[in-house]
Amino acid sequence: MWRPDPFLPSGEKMIDKDLLEILACPACKGDVELVNNKIVCKKCGKKYPIRDGIPIMLIDEAEE
């Protein structure tokens, strides 16, 4: 689901665009977008981390 990108800072991985399109916020079911290597809900604003190229879509892991 990720691919190396020589332009990303060390340790960051790119999220596949097709994966991003099917993800939804687990808290409010809103659409999400990639912002500063986090998955951000467009509706409620929760920010979900990405670890080793894997989105961690758990409400308990989200930042407000």
Task: Explain what you see.
There is one protein chain. The chain has one helix and six strands, in the order ββαββββ. With about 60 residues, the protein is mainly beta. It has a domain at about 25-64: N-terminal domain of TfIIb. The strands form two sheets. Strands 3-4-5-6 form a four-stranded antiparallel sheet, with no helix packed on it. A hairpin with a 2-residue loop joins β5 (about 45-50) and β6 (about 55).
Kindly list the characteristics that best describe this protein:
64 residues, mainly beta, N-terminal domain of TfIIb, four-stranded antiparallel β-sheet, two-stranded antiparallel ribbon, 1 helix, 6 strands, 9% helix
Which fold does the CATH topology of the domain at 23-64 refer to?
A: N-terminal domain of TfIIb
CATH architectural category of the domain at 23-64: Single Sheet
Unreliable sequence segments: none
Total count of strands = 6
What is the percent of helical residues? under 10%
The H-and-E topology, N to C, reads as EEHEEEE
Major pleated sheet:
4 strands, antiparallel
> What is the end-to-end distance?
26 Å
Strand order of the largest sheet: 3-4-5-6
Globally, the shape reads globular
Based on CA atoms alone, the radius of gyration comes out at 11 Å
Nearest-integer average pLDDT: 86
Strand percentage lies at: 25-35%
CATH domain class name of the domain at 23-64:
Mainly Beta
Contiguous helical run count: 1
By helix and strand content, what is the structural category?
mainly beta
